[in-house]
Amino acid sequence: MTSKIKVYLVEDQDLIRESLSSMLSLETDIEMVGLAADAETALEEIEVSSPDVVLMDIRLPGMDGIEATTRIGEFDGDSSVLILTSFGDEYIEAAIDAGASGYILKSCNREQLVSAVKATHQGQLPIDPSVTTKLVRELSELRKGNSGSQLTPRQLEVLKLVAEGNRYKRIAENLFVSERTVHREMQAIFDRLGVNDAAHAVSEAYRQRIIV
After folding, report:
1. CA angle 117-123-125, nearest 5°?
2. The whole model's pTM is what?
3. Which residues of 13-50 are buried (b: 16+ CB within 10 A; e: fewer)?
4. Hey, what domains does the chain have and what are their CATH numbers?
5. Which of 33, 34, 80, 124 is the most exposed place for a label (fewest CB within 10 A)?
């Protein structure tokens, strides 16, 4: 007998959370192992239970779903995160950069949701068809060597705050993420801009008109 796919759902709206849970519970090969309305609660339970797939909303009270996805990637378990959001392609780059294994919209139907959960569990990368155009465009820009296109929306946020003179601790507080995340994003910015410190990163960003 094939084991069921263990799914944990993080969604702050009660009605949506209960509806999604009920919908997925109807599947004979899916088992709902936990529900949470906020990322902090979810992280504590996910680290212990290590579900196969975490369905993660982005806009959550306190820590957002992007930061939570990064934290889950640091656990010892093998949980894969499938982003389920009402925002189109606005967060796709940040989600994938944080380690998400898929990105679908809440406007999807039951069949699409179940298919995305199973695809995520199988190691695939389910992306909602409505946002794939952006990914194709970004890949095209990367091939042209456009450094600005290589920075995720979150990295651009961090870089702009650095350019304004904010310290990493203040940036972490403003973005509701950990200082560790800010340091990681800055290192990624250094690598992508070919620099070694924040001052040169800001200088290069202005030179390339990545920030103005």
Report:
1. 70
2. 0.65
3. eeeebeebbeebeebeebebbbbbbbbeebbebbeeeb
4. 5-132 (3.40.50.2300), 142-207 (1.10.10.10)
5. 124
